[in-house]
Amino acid sequence: MKMTRYALSLLAAAVLAGCGSTVKLDEPAPVETRPVAPPTSAANSSASTAPMAESKVATVDLGAQLTAAVANQRVVLFDFDSYAVKDDYRGLIEAHAKRLNNDRKLALSLEGHTDERGGREYNLALGQKRAEAVAKSLSLMGVGAAQIEPVSFGKEKPAAQGSDEAAWAKNRRVELKDK
Questions:
Q1: Which option is the CATH number for 85-178: 3.10.20.310, 3.30.1330.60, 1.20.140.10, 1.10.3210.10?
Q2: DSSP single-letter state for residue 162
Q3: Which residues are CB-neighbours of 71 under 8 A, at least 6 positions away?
Q4: Which residue has better confidence, 19 or 175?
Q5: Distance between CA 177 and CA 96 in Å, rounded?
Q6: Helix, strand, coil percentages in the chain from 3-state DSSP, rounded to 5
Q7: CB neighbours (10 Å) of residue 176?
Q8: Among the four residues 83, 90, 91, 134, which has the most C-beta atoms within 10 Å?
Q9: How is 69-135 classified by DSSP, letter by letter?
Q10: How many CA atoms lie within 13 A of 22 on its CB side?
Q11: CA atoms of 133 and 79, how far apart (whole Å)
């Protein structure tokens, strides 16, 4: 109890001592002026008098870089009797989407193809579904509908001749061609 009273007494004394000095607000505060010394180091003086060198920044043509990135990536392959876009082609489709989003004047024709198995009407419909699946993937990445045109050729334009699985696998595709 005595300790608490002693602490409070010290605190009160400190507050009263701080209040004892008064500052007049209407009088300006004294300001000390000193002369500015010239720079003493040679590095500072030469840097201030020497002309600054211009930066050599190379310009970047993003359109050309994006076009080069997709130059050899123009085919999306599909499984037999399927129009589901595989995850393997996500990077290819993203690269084309970046290119198309960078330049809204560019457009692609998405040509859907099938292998030789199946009837003409069935293959035309399957080729169209494949082209539309790639178009939907591109549109989900921000590409405008006016920039992509899905078209089906069915089995009319095979990429590989032959009646074996290797040839059929190459023919089940969508080709992304510039318009």
A1: 3.30.1330.60
A2: S
A3: none
A4: 175
A5: 11
A6: 45, 10, 40
A7: 22
A8: 134
A9: HHTT--EEE--TT--PPPGGGHHHHHHHHHHHHH-TT--EEEEEE--S-S-HHHHHHHHHHHHHHHH
A10: 4
A11: 13
- 177 has which bridge partners? 109
Alpha-carbon distance of 48 to 6, in angstroms, equals 62
Whether 103 and 61 have beta carbons less than 8 Å apart is answered as no
Q: From 70, 80, 87, select the one nearest 176 (Cα to Cα).
A: 70
Length reported for the chain: 179
Q: What is the mean pLDDT of the chain?
A: 84
**8 A C-beta contact, residue 102 and residue 70:** no
Question: What residues pair up with 149 in beta bridges, in sequence order?
Answer: 109
* 55/22 Cα distance (integer angstroms): 58
Asked whether the predicted pLDDT for residue 50 surpasses 70, the reply is: no
Q: Which amino acid is at 121?
A: E
pLDDT of 169: 96
pTM (2 d.p.): 0.66
